[in-house]
Design brief:
A 7-stranded mixed β-sheet has the order 3-2-1-4-5-7-6, sandwiched between helices. The protein is an alpha/beta fold and 214 residues long. 42% of the residues lie in helices and 21% in strands. It has a single domain, classed as Rossmann fold, CATH 3.40.50.150. The protein has 8 helices and 7 strands; from the N terminus they run αααβαβαβαβαβαββ. Keywords: Magnesium, Metal-binding, Methyltransferase, S-adenosyl-L-methionine, Transferase, tRNA processing. It catalyses: 5-hydroxyuridine(34) in tRNA + S-adenosyl-L-methionine = 5-methoxyuridine(34) in tRNA + S-adenosyl-L-homocysteine + H(+). This is tRNA 5-hydroxyuridine methyltransferase.
Amino acid sequence: MYSKEIISYLNDIAPESENWVQALEEEAIEHHVPIMDKQGISILQQLVRLHQPVKILEIGTAIGYSALRMLEAHPQASIVTVERDQQMYERAIHNIERQQKQQNVDVILGDALEKETEILAKGPYNIIFIDAAKGQYRRFFESYLPALKSNGMIITDNVLFRGLVADASEAPKRLQNLANKIDQYNQWLLQHPSFHTTILPVGDGIAISIKKNE
């Protein structure tokens, strides 16, 4: 992880975001909604630009911030995104319609582990972005792997979990189990025989898993 000074420097020299982006970031702060930081979202957008996906699956919509930023990077993409929290779902719908992107973003209300049949039917996907319940990362990955196209990419956010994965015993007791689960996911992911995975110490940690040629 870089120092606060470096992160501040990168944020300072970055181009100013459009007004609608700033409004979403302010909404997230006001309502205590965790969203990717500026450097994390910048990496996510760059991956989307490089991969040029036809269809993206996002697990964890929140207020629609990441979906809209991915669409900003590649306006031709189609995004299926799932959110289990009713209030977040409604906020996401509002924000997506406000940007007139409802034709590009299909928001599903429900738990991704319970909506599997519906979500798989809307695939296949070129990119899967996992940003939901951290303790379920492996289940999300395995559940939706069949819907990932050849040479597809799975991106997982928050895999360094504030640095607590390095030594879960140093974490507050209430977070130790979760830190251990994420650590186990990271180790499993890096050893997965069907993927090349790199973990970037950007934001709260981003894992990029690219499917090997079959």
